[in-house]
Amino acid sequence: MVKEIFVNLSVKDLKVAQDFFSKLGFGFNPDFTDERAACLVLGENIYAMLLVEEFFKGFSKKDIPDTLKTAEVINALAVESREKVDQIAEAALAAGGKFSSDPADHGWMYSRSFQDPDGHIWEVLYTDMAAFPKG
Questions:
Q1: Domain named VOC: which ranges (predicted)?
Q2: How many CB atoms are closer than 10 A to CB 106?
Q3: Residues 97, 45 share a domain
């Protein structure tokens, strides 16, 4: 089994990215943060490594997609309540994030999404398993 996850994302300006995610209430692990990378702590054993583009290129021979024009991945974060979904989404928009798609309310699942300053798509969702359709 996997014990931790580190999602690596390229960023154009590390300071802008750190400021954005700080305004959403997230912190950074200083042990894995310097002028080239910042370790965004999303939850227990869940991290996103924000890597400046030149540093990111050292890990892959592929081109870095222009995430302002294309989607590379949707980072989905499950939270404890509908209110927390709204709190994070509203904080993201207030901090300079961009609207990504309409909120989705399926009764048992509620989600909202936004793009960070680098165009990465983030979806925040709450799932009420007691209301999850059976069968």
A1: 3-127
A2: 13
A3: no
Residue 5 corresponds to which tokens in the numbers above?
A: 């996850």
pLDDT tens for 8-17 read 999 999 999 9
Q: Are residues 50 and 82 in the same domain?
A: no
User: For residue 95, what are its two tokens?
Assistant: 């901090």
Q: Give φ, ψ of 132 to 5 degrees.
A: -60, 130
User: Which residues fall within 8 angstroms of residue 28, CB to CB, at 6 or more apart?
Assistant: 18, 21, 22, 38, 39, 40, 41
pLDDT value of position 85 = 98
Task: Report whether pLDDT(68) > 90.
Answer: no
66: DSSP letter:
-
Which pTM value belongs to this model? 0.93
Note whether 75 and 54 are same-domain residues: no
- pLDDT value for 87: 97
- Determine the structural domain holding residue 20 and report its residue range: 1-58
Whether 97 shows a pLDDT value over 80: the answer reads yes
The pLDDT score that the predictor gives to residue 133 is 86
Q: Is 79 in the same domain as 45? A: no
Using only C-alpha atoms, what is the Rg of the chain? 16
Residue 65 lies in a domain: no
